[in-house]
Amino acid sequence: MSVDTNKETLGFQAEVRKLLDLMIHSLYSEKEIFLRELISNASDACDRLRFEALSNDALYEGDPALKIHVDYDKKKKTITVRDNGVGMSRQEVVDGIGTIAKSGTRQFLDSLTGDQAKDARLIGEFGVGFYSSFIVAKKVVLTTRRAGSLHSEGVRWESEGTGEYTVESLERPERGTEVVLHLRKGVDDFLDGHRLRAVIRRYSDHISMPILMPKEDKDKTGEETVNAATALWARSKKEITEEEYNEFYKHVAHDFEAPLAYVHNKVEGKMEYTSLLFIPSRAPFDLWDREHRHGIKLYVRRIFIMDDAEQLMPAYLRFARGVVDSNDLPLNVSREMLQRNRAIDTIRGASVKKILGLLEDMAKKDPEKYAKFWKEFGRVFKEGIVEDPDNRDRIAKLLRIASTHDDKATQAVSLADYVGRMQANQKYIYYVIAEDFDTAKNSPHLEIFRKKGIEALVLADPVDEWVMSYLTEFDGKKLQSVAKGELDLGEIQDKDEKQKIGEASSKFKDLLGRIKTALDDKVKEVRITHRLTSSPACLVTDEYEMGAHLQRLLKATGQTVKTSKPILEINPEHPIVVRLNEEKDEKRVADWSRILFDQALLSEGGQLDDPAGFVHRLNEMFLVISGAQVKS
Fold first, then answer.
1. Fewer Cβ close by (within 10 Å): the C or N end of the chain?
2. 3-state class (DSSP) for residue 520
3. Is the pLDDT of residue 155 over 90?
């Protein structure tokens, strides 16, 4: 780093250099997007100033009329985007533009697929849209001054998009930010007023402050507004086209794809507010971060108040994007006030119902589109079963879960579909949970279900055991884990089968005790099972204890878990169990009991305490079998 008075030459992060290289080589499939990104940034800067000025009117510096200016110069081959928004200090320039340390650049680069259309969508999503300037510019000069600062605290940032950039202080009377793009060869078509107007009207017509350009008529001087400059959500739904809704969504969500669905709602009466809510087509990169939500923007009487208004949407709907504009909230509303505001509670409740209604309509009228929603957001949406008890029944109807009906992870069914296919005497909705789909669908706990043609739900998401502990009933039918408690098939199990289990328990009573002694404190109980048809043994959990899968998940996160002992169930018709019942050598009974336990643990996705011991005992068993065959 070299320093000359107040001018610094700094190096970009390695990640940023890679990002710039992608930009310069036209990561965007449509180069004109750069203008939308710069205007969107300018709009955000104006919104932030309007919010900060609510508590400090002096920030307006005598000029409260917020505007965005777009100009071009054919001779100099430049395009300029200027705003009189909040501006930036020198440190904010270095932190926000020089390093973009908070923008998720590394995650962005790791998410690139090589598909231009998909990768272009990620640019805005990761908050690095400013760098789209280098798609068309060989050099970018940014001049800015933060509102309320001294004129001498202006800042100029300059870069050619290579390995370095410069930052210097300067005198700047105007607050806000100006970005000048020095265009590279091959993009001269943007040095045309009609072309720029068309781009602005296509992508930024909904921006609520005026976007001004010089008048094209030679006989007229001055500027003219080229966008509608009205809050789109405040207009009548009849006046708004599908394209306008889509472009507005792209602005608020920093997305490059149209939304999957949206709902526009205006409430009048005791409370007055408007909401415009969108469901994206794809999951954002930070969807799994429950603490990081930036979906809903809050406005009060068209004045932007804040981003990340998490009080307006619960965590399980954190994928939703949009705006809420209230006529009743005070302009100086804070996050603390939002947490204890009845109006916000009402708006939140109504907004949740609108999203759920939108999803219900989609599921009913366009199952294919709903399947796309579920693929992207289902794992988050199902958290609502736990978080939103008031809407639990509605959420449960919207769940989509894989099942043994077709044994495909991609073919999810609704609980209503399951209930409609239940056997005549079936009392429960059965389900199995495991580490992944293949482990779940191949679980030995499902053997009796497959034999009798009883459908079972197959769950394999990390949140599923947590969710299912709250979803205990649907449509009057209780949900039952196939790996918990004593299996009750009700009238589906005939009297002969029940009699056989009773006889087997008596016949194998001595063996059950010997196995329990051999396994010592590893199991709570050993008993005869009717779950199995081909496996010799399986492990189950007591009905009211934490499942083994959830125990493993909690341990993996570093939590202290009170481990409960499983129950070992053995199949009295399996040759190994029959042979073991005849075995007189207690050491051999002990070794085989350990093998049965370890096999059962592995089959449900568990990990062995002593893998080497398991292999040794297994080899010993093979030797015994081999020796017996030779002798015979």
1. C
2. helix
3. yes
**Residue 610's closest CA among 517, 547, 522, 515?**
522
Do residues 195 and 256 share a domain? no
Sheet arrangement for strand 7-11: 2-4, 7-11, 164-170, 154-159, 137-145, 176-183, 78-83, 68-73, 211-214, 223-225
Up-side HSE of residue 275: CA atoms within 13 Å toward CB?
Answer: 24
The percentage of residues in the chain with a pLDDT greater than 70, rounded to a whole number, is 83
How far apart CA 103 and CA 163 sit, in angstroms, is: 19
- For 274-321, what is each residue's pLDDT tens digit? 999 999 998 876 676 666 656 888 888 877 777 766 788 999 999 999
Residue 127: strand, helix, or coil: coil
* pLDDT digit string, tens, across residues 182-208: 999 989 999 999 999 999 988 888 788
Instruction: Tell me 522's DSSP state.
Output: G
Total tally of structural domains belonging to the chain: 3
Beta bridge mates, 457? 403, 431
Backbone phi, then psi, for 71, in 5-degree steps? Answer: -140, 165
Same domain, yes or no: 142 and 286: no
Terminal alpha carbon distance of the chain = 84
Query: Could you tell me which residues are beta bridge partners of residue 132?
Result: none
- Taking the whole predicted model, whether its pTM rises above 0.90 is answered as no
Going by C-alpha positions, the residue among 594, 447, 618, 595 that lies closest to residue 534 is: 447
DSSP 73-85: ETTTTEEEEEE-S
Q: 335, 355, 390 — which closes off a domain?
A: 335
The CATH number assigned to the domain holding 162 equals: 3.30.565.10
Give all strands of the β-sheet with 303-306 in edge-to-edge order.
Answer: 261-267, 273-279, 321-326, 296-300, 303-306
